[in-house]
Amino acid sequence: MIGHILATLLPVFLIAGCGAAYGRYRTPDIRSLNTLNMELFVPLLVFAVLADRQAPLAEYAWLATAAVAVVLGSGLVVWPLAKWLKLDIKTFLPPMMFNNAGNMGVPLLVLAFGPDALPAAVVVFIVEMLLHFSVGLYMLNPRTSLWRMLRMPIVLASLAGLTANISGLPLPSWLLEATHMLGGVCIPLMLFALGVRLLEIDFSDWRTGMLGAVLCPISGLVIALPLMWLLPLNALQAAVLLVFASLPPAVLNYLVAEQYQLAPQKVASLVLIGNLGSLIVMPLTLAAAFTWVLAPL
């Protein structure tokens, strides 16, 4: 099991480390790479997975429901403590809710549980992204228009993929193969971009970062663990939910905070220290997934 965990985590951190090393000496235009990834490669992966009728989406309805509960429920868990500690809700709460389901989650889940986990990984990633660009933006600015979310390429790709899957529309194999190949680019590119982005943030507010590194996985697990047994999830979906709930804050939290000018340096510390904390949290979570959830298979 230790070998499996290492085989899962080492490629994740190695690719992110390559991004950090390259970014340290070359300072690439990572914003353009991220734009290309989020507007082309990720939507193509989402479309390919959702449109593939070999992955019946009805089987993932409860997983999607559980992912919504984890994102929103973790916010409800952390909110009273943040109020008691007199932390800025707009700064502290979103990173506790919206985790790194894209840059780290999708690659990690596929490496850990194999290609069969890709549809489940994409489902929880879509849930996290849609909630981040709806509920998350509303938390930061209640006047944010939902029309902005509906125009996102990932939303359009999700709707197109769902339509193709539910309607039974036959898609040519060459089209699905091309979208799968182009979509596959996004997984290593997510990790590479994560490594480059982590160079831009610092430890200026390390106490808040340490608190967030502890609360982010705990708040997610408080919601996820009961749901794993209460909802009719199969073993693979339960394992995916467990890992999803334990993921660190998404780098996107920092970019959004920077855009809205809401203490981006504090959010940067939350993101950086939370992702460093995943070096401890993720091996423990994967060990639990292999031992308690997947062992009966």
Overall strand count: 0
Secondary-structure class: mainly alpha
* Average pLDDT: 83
Largest sheet: none
Distance between the termini: 14 Å
Q: What fraction, in percent, of the residue positions are helical?
A: over 70%
SSE arrangement, N to C: HHHHHHHHHHHHHH
- Number of continuous helical runs: 14
Question: Could you tell me the strand content as a percent range?
Answer: under 5%
Q: Spans with pLDDT under 50 lasting ≥5 residues?
A: none
The shape, in one word, is globular
Q: Radius of gyration in whole Å, from Cα?
A: 18 Å
Can you offer a commentary on this structure?
This protein is mainly alpha-helical and 297 residues long. The chain has a domain at 56-168 and 202-293. 80% of the residues lie in helices and 0% in strands. The protein is built from 14 helices and no strands. The radius of gyration is 18 Å and the shape is globular. The two termini are 14 Å apart. The model has no long low-confidence stretch (mean pLDDT 83).
Keywords:
single chain, 297 residues, mainly alpha, 14 helices
Quick summary:
Keywords: Cell membrane, Membrane, Transmembrane, Transmembrane helix, Transport. With 297 residues, the chain is mostly helical.
